[in-house]
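S1.2 Input.
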Amino acid sequence: MSPKVKALAVPLIALLICVILAALATLTGGPPAQADTVPTPIAAYRSADNYVNVTFFDAVTGTTDASSSSMQLISYNSLDIQWVIDMDTSPPNTTTLKLQWSNDDNHWSDGPTVANAIAADSDGMVQTANMGRYTRVYADYTGTSAITLTVKAVAK
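S1.3 Output.
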């Protein structure tokens, strides 16, 4: 073997060994997952092509805790919820809105708080996950003055 061929063969063999080792490393995967690690969840919201407009409260005035009508939203994964709270000024009240879910329209499980301890005229919009067969909004009032509440959503 000529010295020129030997000079080319050594780097080529080294390169071939590196390529083989790299291929083996990708085929065997990384280190095994640890039992105490939790993967980051990835939202699986559907596209906006499949949606429905929902009205939970439509300018409803009240002075006590109230639940909206329940809606069958079993086919939808997320809700874009918009709320508007209009309060009488004296004495001040607070309002907390929370999403609730049920599979039997009788026993309700609390979901996320949509608006927490709102004490003045206010509005906002949030996106939440949706689960179960039925969905409703629960309004928790503190105080005795009238509150007018509107809660609408886009289920998708």
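S1.4 Remarks. The mean pLDDT is 83.
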